[in-house]
From TrEMBL:
This is GAF domain-containing protein. InterPro entries: GAF (IPR003018), GAF-like_dom_sf (IPR029016), Split_barrel_FMN-bd (IPR012349). Residues 161-325 form the GAF domain. It comes from Vogesella oryzagri.
Length: 451
């Protein structure tokens, strides 16, 4: 009969390696260490299948094993008596374990040696505790999860628009969960990548930085629509920064012009990426990290996935409401702030139609749909002296090329507004009401359409 192992999830973080005992048909025992024990549900675990070794041979002949797991906080040990069911070589569970194994490999210098061939799923039918936590110093009780989650959910519910929703989520993570380093990435369906819309805790916000689907823990979490959590230091994003620095040193600036650096910790020791979902629709990814080992546990994963799902439905609802909302109901518009006195330096707004990339003089600003929107705003400002705009009128402009379904206009505008703020650009977008904004321009502009 299966047992409930939910209370032992924290023993499967990988801080203390787990041995597995198997037996051959002739009764010969074998013990080996596992790279990873993954909690699947209340009565199932998954173990890494990396090598066709004696353990693998024994399991295929005699599908019973005993796995030892240890509580990293109290030292309590448990024997899990389990029966082998199947091996998965694709799908969310496999990809999650593959990503974790890659993190372990980079942490231990075993890249190229640790390669996941499959995720072996076992049913746990008995648990034995053989070192009691009562013999060890008592551990502080964890904070109550549900009241904190309820508070976080209520705060998200109070968000007035998408921009506010992004800020509220990052504030909730910092104030209620003590998570100081986080970013929210939005899916770009057409280009099959994710772009950073909001971040907190970094010297550079990295608004507009991109990650392809399937790349790293963020890209895998998006592609497989499953949380990815790694509790050890990895070199993945530090490697990307090193490549960028090397290219810059070699004078390959053109290759870097439109590549906004992804924000991240230099010494990241814990990572958690959870997909932002609205039903079957992928909105993006919520990513958090920490310089501490074992910073994020299963409770954090559960809480952040719940918040991410609520965020996904709210973001989708706000986008749908904005798309069908009549102009008269778009909210009261505040008076536009006074136009500042223009400086003396002429700024060329250079636009490249091939990828809609925009440069302010020689400084890269943005590309894609957000770039096309910015170019349109600047053109209207220079040709018609217009400063005030609404989301609705942008949505109706055919030359922007917005898709008819799920245009994500509001997310693009948030991205553009935050990117302009981060760059302290001579053009800023200030909200004057729901679905309305005004351009604040501090230098004379000259639009230039490049080849």
């Amino acid at each position: 009969m299966s047992v409930d192992i939910t209370g032992l999830r924290h023993c499967m973080e990988g801080a203390i390696p787990s041995p597995i005992a198997t037996c051959a048909l002739d009764g010969t025992p074998n013990i080996a260490y596992l790279s990873q024990v993954q909690y699947v549900d209340a009565c199932h675990i998954a173990l890494t299948f990396q090598f066709f070794n004696k353990t693998r041979q024994n399991i295929l002949q005699h599908p019973h094993a005993v796995v030892k797991v240890v509580d990293p906080h109290s030292g309590s040990s448990y024997r899990l008596h389990a029966r082998y069911l199947r091996t998965e070589t694709s799908g969310p569970l496999f990809e999650k374990m593959k990503a974790k194994l890659a993190g372990i490999a980079s942490h231990t210098g075993m890249v190229g040696i640790f390669k996941l061939q499959g995720a072996d799923v076992y049913e746990v039918n008995k648990v034995e505790a053989f070192v009691s936590a009562a013999q060890l110093p008592p551990q502080p009780s964890p904070a109550a999860c549900l009241p904190t989650l309820r508070d976080a959910s209520n705060r998200l519910n109070g968000s007035g628009d998408l921009d506010d929703l992004f800020d509220t989520l990052l504030t909730v993570l910092r104030e209620l969960y003590a998570i100081d380093h986080a970013m929210v990435l939005k899916l770009d369906e057409a280009r099959e990548c994710l772009f950073t819309v909001a971040s907190a805790g970094y010297a550079q916000a990295g608004i507009g930085s991109e990650i392809p689907l399937g790349h790293g823990v963020i890209g895998v979490a998006a592609r497989e629509r499953t949380p990815i959590r790694i509790s050890h230091m990895t070199s993945e994003y530090m490697y990307g920064k090193a490549v960028r620095a090397s290219a810059a040193a070699q004078g390959l600036q053109q290759q870097l012009e439109t590549a906004i650096p992804l924000p991240g910790l230099e010494q990241c020791r814990s990572q958690l990426a959870v997909p932002i979902l609205a039903g079957s629709e992928l909105y993006g990814v919520l990513y958090v990290e920490s310089p501490q080992d074992l910073r994020f546990g299963y409770d954090d994963e559960d809480a952040l996935q719940t918040l991410a799902n609520q965020f996904g439905w709210m973001a989708r609802g706000m986008a749908c409401q904005a798309a069908v909302e009549p102009a008269a109901a778009a909210g009261h518009s505040l008076p536009a702030p006074p136009l500042p006195e223009l400086g003396d330096s002429l700024v060329q707004v250079r636009y490249f139609a091939a990828d809609h990339s925009v440069f302010l003089n020689d400084d890269y600003l943005i590309k894609g749909v957000a770039g096309a929107i910015f170019w349109k705003l600047v053109h209207c400002y220079c040709a018609e002296q217009r400063r005030q705009f609404s989301n609705r009128e942008l949505r109706l402009m055919p030359d922007l090329g917005l898709p008819e379904i799920s245009d994500n206009l509001e997310a693009r505008l948030v991205l553009l507004q935050r990117r302009l703020q981060e760059r302290q650009a001579c053009v800023q977008m200030l909200k004057t009401g729901r679905g309305r904004f005004v351009l604040q321009v501090s230098q004379p502009l000259l639009p230039v359409a490049e080849g």
